[in-house]
Each structure stands twice: as structure tokens, then as C-alpha cells.
Amino acid sequence: MTKGGMESVEVFTSEGKGRGLxxxxxxxxxxxxxxxxAYAAVVFDSxxxxxxxxxxxxQERLHRxxxxxxxxxxxxxxxxxxxxxxxxxxxxxxxxxxxxxENIRLAARILWKIEREGSGLAEGCLVSIDDLxxxxxxxxxxxxxxxxxxxxxxxxxxxxxxxxxxxxxxxxIFGVISCNGFTLSxxxxxxxxxxxxxxxxxxxxxxxxPNCTVIFNNGNHEAVRSMFHTQMRIELRALSKISPGDExxxxxVDFLNVSEERRKQLKKQYYFDCAxxxxxxxxxxxxxxxxxxxxxxxxxxxVKEVIQFSKDTxxxxxxxxxxxxxxxVVKLCRExxxxxxxxxxxxxxxxxxxxxxxxxxxxxxxxxxxxADYAKRMVDGYMKIYHPNNAQLGMAVMRAGVTHWHAGLxxxxxxxxxxxxxxxxxxxxxxHPITKDLEVMRVQTEMELRMxxxxxxxxxxxxxxxxxxxxxxxxxxxxxxxxxxxxxKKE
Length: 491
Hints:
Elements: E1 9-14, E2 18-23, E3 32-36, E4 40-43, E5 63-64, E6 72-73, H1 76-96, H2 102-117, H3 141-157, H4 167-180, E7 182-185, E8 192-197, E9 205-206, E10 212-217, E11 233-238, E12 247-250, H5 259-270, H6 277-280, H7 285-288, H8 300-322, H9 326-340, H10 349-364, H11 368-385, H12 391-406, H13 410-427, H14 433-454, H15 456-469
Parallel strand pairs: 9-12
Antiparallel strand pairs: 1-2, 2-12, 3-11, 4-8, 5-6, 7-8, 10-11
Helix pairs in contact: 1-2, 2-3, 2-4, 3-4, 8-9, 8-10, 9-10, 10-11, 10-12, 11-12, 12-13, 13-14, 14-15
């Protein structure tokens, strides 16, 4: 079953997992298997005035819709592109007096699209909205209560002149959003900024060690002629060689967790028991829970104490980060590392989590040498755990490379930036803004490295002069979220 640009994949019934996607031809790492525009998408409530409602890019100055005063756009191009989807929403917001929450707005956009086009197969879709999983029957009491509240709010917002839908169908749409909503990120890929529904992507089953990754591409509206504009879309990209007939899988959760924890998260959020190879055989769990080897191997009791101390510290760190108390975060990280280092192995996830936070916050505070030391250890641990072509790994290696560069450790910095570039070429592709940024850094560090190799003394002299004249580029303020997860799920 193929349709509009989807010739290279087919929907099939996967044993024990329901529907899935499989490849119709061979793919190599970095190949785009398919690109899919959103069926419907909205910006998160907290960011509606700083993110463009069409391409989801973060911009300094946005144009506001003169009618509803709610939607914001980069420019006229984005505003015109949005009108078909915004027209009904615009008058409904004016009638209602205010914009409802993101979930209600997304449900309304889906139903207006169904009103315009019917609920059958949309162009380029392998499945219809009617056929997407909603898991409403699996909802717990709390989720059912939320669903009832959402349906009531929706009915207050939905205009009387629009097509009226039955309660069961409206509940189905909210169920679909709850378990199939995909997280949209800004152009740098570092912050989750919205949620969208992509019916074809929803068919890809989960595997903790997948053969594909999903990247959100904000599209390009900068070309002078609109025929060169590209649409906002997701891209399903191959991470390893895929043969015709292979199932295409993506990971719904970050791999950096022991199998039992990943399974719990998947059961809670997506209502299935993960039976992938890595979970069944608990592959890499031993690395993630590694303890120091050698003469004085710590006792089970000591290990338990240190892990509990790490968990308690991570809670304190989160609280301090929320309040912007970054020096307090550094103090907590140093104390925790002192306790962890004699006990936990270098791939232990509790050690890696503290190293990651410490390197990020110290970079922000411009304490680059200490940050670089922690970043190097974090990356060494990640390399042993993650799939070599993992987007999270690529981003972490990039961060470590920039930190080393800022610390004046040009050889290590350049090496890490090249390594990150090789990973992101596969996971994000050459035209993604992150990859382009990284290419600029790669060229810059290569030039500096040549200068360093020719005359070390002159290199440091010039670096010192440059730093006096220009403030070193400050790292972005540490975010309280990990990288956006694949699917958006209300916690």
C-alpha cells in the first residue's frame, strides 16, 4: 500500500505489535526514507508569542495576526501559508474571547481539516485519522478525567456553525493526540516548542535500538521565490543499512536508561510491553549500572547508598536549576562526583547524568577547563552505550567539542567537532541548521588547529588578544529539559 511520495515504504501487520512499516527498497545510513508534513500542529501554550505558528522557528520579532491577536508569524510568507489552517481558528478565538489550551487547539485543527477534506485517506497518507490508535480503553482514572475535561472545553470552543461531531469521535481525536502527538522543536533542535500529528510516522513501531531516527525540519521560507520554499516536515532517516522487507523502527524514549526503566516508561506512556532484543536480553544494562572494578571493589551496600545519594542530588539539582542557582548546581555536582568516583564505573548512568549537568552548567558559567574535563568523560561513557549514529550522542559530542574549543584545547575540540559532524550528517542531514552551524565551527577550528601546529606560542598570544577584544561566545543558558523526546505526552 503506497501513496504520494511514500513508494519506498509499506504498511504491514507486525506480529504482536499491530501495524508497522517496512522498507520496499534498500537504504543506507543518512538516507531520507520519507518526509511528511504535519496533518495538524500547534505551538505550546507557553511559547505562542515567541515561536512562528507556521514553521515553528524561534524568532526575535514576529508579526501578530491582526484579527485574533493570538497567532504569530515570521513574515507574510508564513502568515499566508498558515491561513487555510488558521482561518476557522481565528474566528473561533474571536468568538470565544480567548485561545484555548494546546490540546484543544490541536483537536480543533484536526476536526476542521476533516470538515474540509473528510476523514478518509488524506493525500500522501498511508492511514486515515479514523484508523490511528487512541488507547482510550487503556486510560487510567486520572487520564479519563483529563479526557472529559478536554472534551468539555472543546465543545465550549467549537463554533456552532462548524460541522458537529459525536462525543465518541471527539474522544478518539484526543486519544490520538495523547499517544501519537509528535514533539516539534525549534530550528536549533534544542527546545521542544510544539506538538503535531503525522499519520505515517505513527505507523513506525518502537525499538530501543532502532534502525531509523526522526528529525523535525522547520523548512525554508527564506528563498526570494516561493517555488524554492520548503515545507515544515518530519524526516524519517536511516541510521544503519536497511534491506527491502526490513521493519522500520524508531525509539520513542531515550536509550540512556536500564531496560526495566525504559519498559516502565513505554508501558505508562504508550501502553505496550517492549519486547525488543535490547530489553529482552537486558543488553548494556551492565554498562549502565557499572561499578568500579579492581582490588577494592565496593560492596553492594555502598553501591546502593551512592545511587540513592545520586538520585537525591539530582532532585536538588533540578530545583536549583529551576531557580537559576547555577553556582549551587555546580557545588551539588562536585559533591556528588566525589562520592560517585570511587564507587561507580565510568559508564554508570548516574555518574554520566551528573557529568552532563556539570559540563553544561560550568560552560554556561564560562568555567571551560573544568567543564571540558567532565564533558570528555561524559562523551567517553556515551560512546560505549549509545548506537554510533544516535542524535542525542551527536548533540552531546558537539557540546563537548565546543566546550573544549572555548577552553583553548584546540586539538581535542576540533576532533570532537569532526566526530559530532559525522554523526549529525547521518541523523540530521547536511542542510539542517544544526549541521550547518557545526560545519562553520569545523572550518573555524581546523584553521585554528593549523595555526596552533605551526606556532603554538603565537596561537595562544592571538587567542588571548581575541578574547580581550571580544567577549567569548557565551553558551546558551542551560535548559531544564533533556533534548525533546520523540513523542509529546502530557505528564
